[in-house]
Write a structure and sequence with these properties.
The protein is of the alpha/beta class and 369 residues long. It folds into two domains: 10-48 and 271-367, Aspartate Aminotransferase, domain 1; 52-268, Aspartate Aminotransferase, domain 2. 38% of the residues lie in helices and 15% in strands. It contains 13 helices and 13 strands. It has helices at residues 16-19, 27-34, 52-62, 73-82, 95-107, 123-130, 148-154, 177-184, 240-249, 257-268, 270-292, 318-327, 352-367, and strands at residues 39-40, 90-94, 113-117, 134-138, 159-165, 190-193, 216-221, 233-237, 298-299, 306-310, 330-331, 333-334, 344-348. The strands form three sheets. A seven-stranded mixed sheet has the order 2-8-7-6-5-3-4, with helices on both faces. Strand 9 (298-299) and strand 10 (306-310) form a beta hairpin. Helix 3 (52-62) runs antiparallel to helix 10, helix 4 runs parallel beside helix 10 (257-268) and helix 11 packs parallel to helix 13. It binds pyridoxal-5'-phosphate. Pyridoxal-5'-phosphate is lined by residues 44, 95-97, 121, 165, 169, 193, 195, 221, 223, 229, 234.
Length: 369
């Protein structure tokens, strides 16, 4: 029978959980690429460009572009040293987004459930849905921190995975250690995404708990404090056993030579890393102090390279400020999530000039209201 006579079309063969998701919208990133003069305060990028050492290593690596990349063991060894772990406990992939996807696929099969306390980074829900799983969204406490009692109450026979973020995006708050321990004690595989942990005033990773909890998986990225988002390097820290399963699931040779060179040379220039993070933290403090002087708004204290602002008490819809700023060449991020009110937006910490321009235009917007 020729295909044109078939009663069903090719799309009918697509698995239902892929059909039901919408393509993740990256228009905000494309807008910034298409308008190079815009202040990119929307995606929690590091405003520091890569060091000269990183750039030179990348150029050198590009000369070997005809060859298949190495297996990543030298990068895994360097990352392991940061936390006094073994290379066998480090899994690397193309950005922590891919790490999150691979973790999801080793635990979730159609019909399984993952628990995700909100508000948080939207990608966990997407990856779980794409693996055929469903998510249990846990609403937060009044102050938008995780409601751990509620998380524990929702664990059931179908629960296969739990996602926590520390510090959380978009709130910026740090997860109390006791809360994490209560969750880990359930034995459910638990991801703690530490995308921003290096930016805490006193960085404190939960990786020390790996010795006690084989169900803990720490996820990290080199896109934020390490400042190489464009090179897409993320990693996880877990037991050797879990890491072995992650490696089985990973696409072979998925990290290119150039990306690996960027990561290794960034790790080799630790002074540059410390210098840029000290500056980001200073600028966060300065921006926070300036924002705190503005009456009527609520600014969430943040341990990341961003700040969440709520204009709800002024009765202002954040869409207005986001578009006002964009008209003035400043791109921030609307946080139009159901668990947050209409007044929420997030601004990434930029360099001093960018932060000044943002403050100036934000105050101007408020004074015109
Ligand atoms: C909490 C969190 N996890 C993961 C990521 C993704 O990072 P990567 O660039 O490593 O994919 C982000 C990016 O904004 C994030 O905020």
């Amino acid at each position: 029978m020729s295909s044109k006579h078939r009663a069903i079309g090719v799309e009918d063969f697509i698995v239902p959980w892929v059909k039901k998701v919408k393509l993740y919208n990256t228009n905000h990133i494309m807008y910034a690429w298409n308008h190079p003069s815009v202040d990119r305060l929307m995606s929690n990028e590091n405003f520091h460009p890569p060091s000269e050492h990183v750039v030179n290593s990348v150029v050198e690596a590009a000369r070997k572009g005809n060859l298949y990349p190495q297996d990543g063991m030298s990068l895994r060894e360097k990352l392991a040293k940061l936390d006094n772990l073994k290379a066998e406990q480090v899994f690397i992939a193309n950005g922590s987004l891919e790490v999150i996807d691979v973790i999801t696929r080793i635990f979730i099969s159609p019909g399984d459930e993952a628990i995700i306390p909100f508000p948080t980074y939207p990608m966990y829900e997407l990856r779980v849905t794409l693996a055929g799983g469903t998510v249990q969204i846990i609403s937060p406490k009044k102050d938008l921190t995780y409601d751990v009692n509620k998380v524990l109450e929702h664990i059931n026979r179908k629960t296969r995975l739990l996602f926590l973020v520390n510090p959380n995006n978009p709130i910026g708050n740090v997860l109390p250690e006791n809360d994490l321990i209560r969750v880990l004690d359930t034995g459910i595989p638990t991801v703690v995404d530490e995308a921003y942990y290096e930016l805490e005033d006193e960085p404190r990773s939960m990786s020390f708990l790996l010795r006690l909890y084989p169900n803990l998986i720490i996820v990290r990225t080199m896109s934020k404090a390490w400042g190489i988002a464009g090179f897409r390097i993320g990693y996880s820290l877990a037991s050797d056993r879990i890491t072995d399963y992650l490696n089985r699931m990973r696409i072979t040779c998925s990290i290119g030579t150039v990306n690996m060179a960027a990561a290794i040379s960034a790790l080799d220039t630790i002074d540059y890393f410390h210098k840029q993070n000290t500056e980001t933290k200073e600028l966060r403090k300065e921006l926070g102090e300036e924002l705190d002087k503005i009456g009527g708004i609520h600014v969430f204290p943040s341990s990341g390279n961003f700040m969440l602002i709520d204009l709800g008490a002024l009765g202002i819809n954040a869409e207005e400020v986001v578009s006002y700023l964009l008209q003035n060449n400043i791109q921030v991020r609307l946080m139009n999530r159901p668990e947050l009110g209409p007044g929420f937006f997030r601004v990434t910490i930029g360099n001093r000039e960018q932060n000044k321009r943002f403050l100036h235009k934000f105050r101007e917007f408020l004074s015109e209201k």
